[in-house]
Amino acid sequence: IVARATHPQGSVIRVRGIPIGGEQIQVIGGPCSVETQAQMDESAAAVAAAGCRMMRGGAFKPRTSPYAFQGLGVEGLEFFQRSARQHNLPIVTELMDVRMLDTFIEHEVDVIQIGARNMQNFDLLKEVGRVNKPVILKRGLSATISEWLMSAEYIAAGGNHNIIFCERGIRTFETAYRNVLDITAIPVIKRETHLPVIVDPSHAGGKAWMVPALAQAAVAAGADGLLIEMHPNPCEAWCDADQALTPAELKQLMTTLGAIAQAV
Ligand code: PEP
Ligand code: MN
């Protein structure tokens, strides 16, 4: 169902009226994790000031260590929603457990993120396939393109065709950076499917200084948008501090993307 042949012209997914896929590129900015109300208030103001039209933030975090901060849970969704509403920013947040799906809907999460670690959590995919919320489907840490496409089919098969692919870097032999951003995946997914593709340069490089170059390359390669981590005070971030842009860095990066998008 996700195959290009079914919609040769390409699908545009609307999130509270904001189009993903199509002419404009959309940048989703925000912190790795929801920490406090003040941190989210500052983040939302910075995301809006930078010109981003959507906001990210995790309330349920898939941490490698069970002893690391796991996210604020439902309270985090509340902080997030309160801050984002002040700037009319739709919210993007990760769903890890099918049991939280109703809570996400009650809290009016606008876009459900399926994280890399859950790309093949088939029961989770089936459940998000039954709701009509847009879903960002991240590529698994070591997932092939065909596995990624099949995961999207799991969602689409349930009736939910509002799927946005997100390339976030894959594991290779290279250890000098967190993951290798697979730029090649962008034109391939766009050719194979009718759905939008966005790129997360933050989790790919794992370092803030790499983010502008990767973001710009992604837009040049035809990405429909970006998912970028930004924190009002990166040094103090509770999670993924090394890769968070400052508000000023996000704003600066945003000024460079329009011309690149125009040129392709
Ligand atoms: C995230 O976006 O917060 C995240 C955990 O990313 P990924 O699933 O790509 O590792
Ligand atoms: Mn993160």
UniProtKB/TrEMBL annotation:
Question: Which processes are annotated in GO (biological process)?
Answer: aromatic amino acid family biosynthetic process
Its EC top class is transferase
Q: Which UniProt keywords apply?
A: Transferase
Assigned EC number: 2.5.1.54
- List the molecular function annotations (GO) for this entry: 3-deoxy-7-phosphoheptulonate synthase activity; aldehyde-lyase activity
The DAHP synthetase I/KDSA domain covers which part of the protein? Answer: 17-257
Q: What is the protein's given name?
A: Phospho-2-dehydro-3-deoxyheptonate aldolase
Residue span relative to the full protein: 71 to 334 of 338
